[in-house]
Amino acid sequence: MTPRYLTDTFAIAPQLSIADVADVARQGFRAIVCARPDGEERGQPTIKDMERAAAEAGLTFEAVPFAAGATPPQVDVDRLNVVLKGAGGPVLGYCRSGNRAAQLWALAQAGTLPTEDILAAGHKAGVDLSPLVPLLKQEAATGTTSHASPGRRFDVVIVGGGAGGLSAAASLLRRRPRTTIAIVEPSDTHYYQPGWTLVGGGVFKAQKTRMPEASVMPKNADWIRSTVTHIDPDTREVIVADGGVLSYEVLIIAAGITLDWGAIAGLPETLGRNGVTSNYRYDLAPYTWELVEKVSHGNALFTQPPMPIKCAGAPQKAMYLACDAWRKRGVLDAINVEFDNAGGALFGVQAFVPALMNYVRDYGIALQFHSKLVAVDGERRIATFERTTGDKTERVEQSFEMLHVVPPQIAPAFIRESGLGDASGFVAVDPGTLQHVTRQNVFAIGDSAGTSNAKTAAAVRKQAPVVALNVAAALDGKPPVALYDGYGGCPLTVERGKIVLAEFGYGGKLMPTLPRWILDGQHATRLAWFLKKDVMPPLYREMLRGHEFMVEPEKISRT
What we know:
The chain contains 16 helices and 28 strands. The protein is α/β, with parallel strands linked by helices. The protein folds into three domains: 4-142, Protein tyrosine phosphatase superfamily (Protein-Tyrosine Phosphatase, Chain A, Alpha-Beta Complex); 152-257 and 411-555, 3-Layer(bba) Sandwich (FAD/NAD(P)-binding domain); 262-404, FAD/NAD(P)-binding domain. The strands form eight sheets. Strands 6, 7, 10, 11, 12, 13 and 24 form a seven-stranded mixed sheet that branches. A five-stranded mixed sheet has the order 1-2-5-3-4, sandwiched between helices. It has a five-stranded parallel sheet with strand order 15-22-16-17-18, covered by helices on one side. The longest helix has 19 residues, at 457-475. Residues 143-150 have low confidence and may be disordered.
């Protein structure tokens, strides 16, 4: 499969086969767009089969089929724009010859690029786009190229259709079924991210951690399949990528956290090859297990960046599962395992450190604190760290056979630019009510919230009813009625079959869900493994539906 590039981020190809999809992923594409209807010729792979192959390869797939000789429908142009803005990397479009995919791209660029540049891009890719010139010029002249949808008003606009946004929406709709809610989410796939550690440990298959976004979207909510470009809290408006304007009475920001892969020099170019992997991405977690199965000697490096990060225990979970597998294979003694942590402690809550240190010693792991990964040379298999001892900081190069990277993580750009962020860029909210400190009609949930709790799905489970109750109160013109206690759960997978289940709240206060005689969270147990592997996935799905099991929030008393 040889793509023909119109730009650095969009290419076209003739009809792909199922076998081609893996090659598309290897070439660095992040999404596939199909512009061809099913059944045009004998033996043509169906859209459904192609979508399944794309999912297995870790790619986003979007079908926008239209007949040869027809002009792409407006809705399809809009959908391509969503994919281009949300893919996070190059996109490949295909049809019978590639021409329809190129036409779709051309109309999506009208008014953004000069017509002559669009034609030149088509010529470079071997496609004559001149029949589109009248339409391209018309849209460029009228300024309709963004295909902006008219302004729409909702009681609640939720930015983000991940765990936080969906759970808050479902919880609110259970309490106020007539509430009008818009959820802005560009992806057609929802991921159970807590399962990626187990994918990297060879326990789950990656496909088990993904599901169609439509299957978890609340039926009474409007799904806006776009990305947010701007929030104006003064006018109470959210601007999305296609130019649409969403007005709100209450805003819930559930946009997650941005993985800043580019902050480490050389990392984006070598991810997924040369022994460089990360369980923080769906398409890379299987490569982690592939490396664990192959490595039998040399240096295996595991990194943790400065806080904040999602699931602060995940960097070392990957390491423990790898060590356990190597020990079972009898090769652990031949592998030098090193944990490079930019912080100064193995875990942020001291009560769980002794149990973890037992495994560190048992596996023979070398701990390097205040050691931050700053560069990766994949071809040479060299990682560069900045290590600080006292007042002295030096750069250290370390060779590796395997490098598991956790990237630095920052607040999404539109939050930082909205005036709603705190000093770190995350939404400035009261840690108890999750209401913005100055904007009473703005709330945050999950990783976007500027709170000190662990950024985990378990935290979202406790936050969702708090946000739902307080948003309902805000819609009624009343003050918040519920408090979040900072609860976060972190199942620290120390070996296949055992977990240290760390549960704690604000200030490191221990907050076990079950009595200690049933589950001792400060020691590795098989019960905690059972909960992580078999109980938490279905519990997560119920959370997305608004079912609140053992998460009754504290009520604010006003006497």
